[in-house]
Amino acid sequence: MEATRMKKLPPYLFARIEKKIEEAKEKGVDIVSFGIGDPDLPTPDPIIAELCKEARNPANHQYPSSVGMLDFRREVAAYYQRRFNVELDPRSEVVSLIGSKEGIAHINFCYVDPGDINLVPDPGYPVYGIGTLLAGGEVYVLPLLEKNGFLPDLAAVPEEVAQKAKLLFINYPNNPTGAVAGKEFFEQVVDFAKRYNIIVCHDSAYTEIAYDEYRPMSFLEVPGAQEVGIEFGSLSKPFNMTGWRIGWAVGRADVVECLGRLKSNLDSGQFQAIQYAGMVGLRHSGQLVKDLCAIYTRRRDMVVDGLNRMGWNLKKPQGTFYIWAPVPKGFDSASFTEYVLEKCGVIITPGNGYGQYGEGYFRLSITIPEERIMEGLRRLEENLGKVEF
Ligand SMILES: *Cc1c(COP(=O)(O)O)cnc(C)c1O
């Protein structure tokens, strides 16, 4: 018998679509996939070279520290200083993670007792809510609505919920909506967190994936942020390193310490050679990220312009590699996703896979080459013609 907590896991919404994808592939259909948000480009060479070099050093073959090498934590602190003008003590305010997803899930086990409430954005990255549930907590949904720029309305959280809440998850630039947040919103978050003694967990996975001179800020840049929360960072998206599993949490010292303490009882950190390789990425992040975002910019423009020619009225997102768009009239998220798979051999992600407020939308990921994007758009246009809403 499985543990009861396994029953708390939400039904897997992509199961049906994945079955259809399998069927199409078996039939030999050529599929264009805007589905998974996983960079298609290789990890930059200098990072790979450093891994190869450090993999040969026997000093790296033993158990690493579960909180990360001090050198790695120093490099993260140096990056924060350079990029955000945020000062961090590498010993007490930085902990390495085996991918930021690991830390996002585990932070719940540090602060959530059965019956506690976390504030979780919807639509959103599923790990916030799932981590909450696995720790025995309850999710209070913060709807991310288009009319609010996909920012949560913190003033709408009932007093008794705010009083009880332990963690507040936020994520900008945002997956799946592509929305960005500025200083004003982060200041509201700090005020709210201070008033109700809530720990803020900002997921900054896309802080380096941004367009048109826009440079997303760190939550920790806002005065008071370091007293109320932490920021999760990831090497996955800026350096095409999703398979390497390396990230960090930074910010409020007691929260970083608590997460590190939990981890020291659960895991033994990430392979040191990978930490060294990640350090090379951080050191050269300026140029590497610039090159990468130039590629994503062309892809983003291609997709948004293409959809707008068909009748959508989308603004170009300023961050992330996602396009979030409403489904045409007569469809919901699931039926539109199935329609474009069956008619066009194109995979998109149904918005309701990210929560109830994602219903009526779909997500396109631009982590495929330009020729494939062109082919996907061509097929959509051929089958959909002009769309209405
Ligand atoms: C990709 C992604 C992450 C990064 O996860 P890693 O575990 O660091 O690879 C975190 N949050 C969001 C919203 C993401 O889309």
Any overview of this molecule?
- The chain is of the alpha/beta class.
- It folds into two domains: 4-43 and 287-383, Alpha-Beta Complex (Aspartate Aminotransferase, domain 1); 45-284, Type I PLP-dependent aspartate aminotransferase-like (Major domain) (Aspartate Aminotransferase, domain 2), CATH 3.40.640.10.
- It contains 14 helices and twelve strands.
- The protein has a seven-stranded mixed beta sheet with strand order 2-8-7-6-5-3-4, sandwiched between helices.
- The relative contact order is 0.17.
- The model has no long low-confidence stretch (mean pLDDT 96).
- The structure holds pyridoxal-5'-phosphate (PLP).
- Pyridoxal-5'-phosphate is lined by residues 37, 99-101, 125, 171, 175, 203, 205, 234, 236-237, 242, 247.
Tell me the strand percentage band: 5-15%
Tell me the span between the first and last alpha carbons: 47 Å
User: What is CATH's topology name of the largest domain?
Assistant: Aspartate Aminotransferase, domain 2
Give helix % range.
Answer: 40-55%
Q: Record the strand order, biggest sheet.
A: 2-8-7-6-5-3-4
CATH superfamily of the largest domain: Type I PLP-dependent aspartate aminotransferase-like (Major domain)
- Ligands and ions found: pyridoxal-5'-phosphate
Structure keywords:
globular; Aspartate Aminotransferase, domain 1; 2 domains; 42% helix; binds pyridoxal-5'-phosphate; 14% strand; three-stranded antiparallel beta sheet; 389 residues; seven-stranded mixed beta sheet; Aspartate Aminotransferase, domain 2; alpha/beta; single chain
